[in-house]
Structures are given as structure tokens and as C-alpha cells.
Amino acid sequence: MNNTIDWNEKRMAQLAKLWDEGLPITQIGVKMGVSRSAIAGKIHRMQLPKRTEAKNEKADKATPKPRPKQPEVIPLLARDNLPLKLALRNITWSRSRCSWPIGNPQSTDFHFCSKDVVVGKPYCNEHCFDAYANPREGGGS
Questions:
Q1: CA 133, CA 126: separation in Å to the nearest integer?
Q2: 8-63 tens-digit pLDDT
Q3: Rounded to 5 degrees, what angle do the CA atoms 131, 134, 135 make?
Q4: Do 45 and 87 belong to one domain?
């Protein structure tokens, strides 16, 4: 690549022709033996029309491409019809909700209470009484 470029009428006409053909700036620079930046600057100074993409790419886009096949829609199964592993994945749990287990963990109807918790405890007010029962309060021995 030359450090000094002689932009005579012949070279400017060649640049305009290659630009109109839709060649990328880098390829024009290679063909003309100058840097990509030199080509970009000269195109700007010559006020050649701007383009967002090469003309060859425009021709390719003119022919419609076949649309990708839509994925097959699989109907959602009710939680009762899901295998246990999948049904249990859908259980929601949060530190701000009661985590008292309800139901058999081996069945699809298993869930957590999910009421608001007592501050500092993992359970709602009702389940705190069950979880933190004091044996001395039971009136036993």
C-alpha cells in the first residue's frame, strides 16, 4: 500500500465504477492498492451516494427466503397429568411466604401453604403454632 496516492481522473473513475458495482470498501482498496481508510475518505470527498450494504447483498435479499418452519405447538398438560418430576418443578417457594408443606410430596397435588409469614419465621401464624408447640403448654406431665 502506498503512503501517497495520486488521485487522477482515471483512478477516481475506477473508484466510482467499483463503488457502483457494490464492492465493499476493503475489496476496492485491495484492487486499487490503497488502504480501506483512503478509499472511505475519497468516497466521502467525491460525495458518492451512501449505501448501507453492498449491492450484491441487496440482490440476494430481493429473492424471498423460505420462512423457517414454525415449531409444533404442544398443548400444556394439567398438573395432575404431568409426571411427578415435572409437576414438582412447578412448585413456587419464597422466603416471604409460608413454607409449610401441604399434601404428600410423592403426589402431584403437593404444595406449600404460601400465606404471609410471621416476621423472623418461615411459617404463617397458623403453622407457627404447629411448628413451635411447647410440650409444657399441652397440660401433660
A1: 11
A2: 899 989 989 998 888 899 999 898 889 999 988 988 898 888 876 655 555 555 66
A3: 115
A4: no
